[in-house]
Please model this.
Amino acid sequence: MAGKSFDVVVVGGGPGGYVAAIRAAQLGLETAVVERERLGGVCLNWGCIPTKTLLRSAEVLHLMKHAADFGLKADNVGFDAGKVVERSREVADRLSKGVGHLMKKNKVAVFDGEGRLAGKGKLVVARDGEDVGELSARHIVLATGARPRELPEIAPDGEIVWTYREAMTPDAIPGSILVVGAGAIGIEFASFYREMGSDVTVVEVVERILPAEDKEIADLARKAFEKRGIRIMTGARVKAMRVSRSNAKVDVGDSEDRIRTVEVDKVILAAGITGNVESLGLENTGVETDRGHVAVDEWLETGEPGVHAIGDLVGPPWLAHKASHEGVICVEKIAGLRHVEPLETLNIPGCTYCNPQVASVGLSEDAAREAGRDIKVGRFPFIGNGKAIAMGDDRGLIKTVFDAGTGELLGAHMVGAEVTELIQGFTIAKELETTEAELIRAIFPHPTLSETMHEAVLDAYGRALHI
Model:
């Protein structure tokens, strides 16, 4: 490793880091990645992919439980928790190896260890606490991601109090669980464990679940979750917790400081994340941090010349696809490509893979009004869609928000079956600066769930056909 010199060295091999490395290599830059654990990062190994694999098992179990609704028979329906987890880990392992193949294919050098800035264009690589070599590069891209935020009242112990890692690899499905945090991560775990038979309670400090989503959509999702038996406490926070060898007793206070004690087998901490800024050698550099994240400009450049940062490390939205796109923007700017454009955060879709699913892009109705926009809002329920009814899942709503004057699509918000697959249609529309006129003229195939998208556009202009 000594004396190795590169054009670009990426610290972190997650969805931001490895994509940045691939794009850099495609552009003819000598590129290396430094990764301390497994290629693919948290997303591939402990986040996006394995959780979706678990949720798929829960989805299949749900269908099996309701086989009679489809004229089918499935007796003695059950599951093997060990096999469910094993499949999840196998999928993650397969994809991690796939990233390794992509590194070789693109001739990206991979170094095992942690990277630390050590002067202009220098990066020390350490393994197991000991320095093992030094790399030099014209540009260093920090892509070290983030970790769960800890709360003073809740100390994860890996036994009773879990982070996402323990929640993804249970030895058995607990009888009862308290999920702290009702963002996407918390709601996905609540949905999974409820389907697998756990008694689930969710605690959220703000007044509603999924606070990043449109309020109407979040409220509909909450009703669906509560109908499934998930207890939800909003405007509440954990005040104290007493952990024994077998369970936890958690004192939860509401907005008026009334205390309710919840006794559960396990607690899952899902109260946000903080960037992995420690041990990066940021001291005595121009790199600035803000509330646990690295500050960057629109081109992902830090205050230190030649040092860039991307992904969860630089803040919200904390999404793998956002990190990947930042990686591409960052290295294309480094390579001097013309017509590189900064990331437009309002065009980044968000997805929550619970049951029912939630997805969105752009401004919510409230945000559009707060921005002073005169808007038209369209809605179409899944109950009016033939494909949803045929699927046996007519819970859902598509909501569109348009600028009343220009017809600009400001936002789209969804709850229901497969909406995480549908949202890309509106994401493309926003990227192309599509107006209601083009969307109304577009032909949507029948019978599909996507017809609900068309109808929600039509409804915003008083032209819905099937409600």
Summary: The chain is about 30% helix and 25% strand. The mean pLDDT is 96. The CA atoms of residues 194 and 200 lie 6 Å apart.
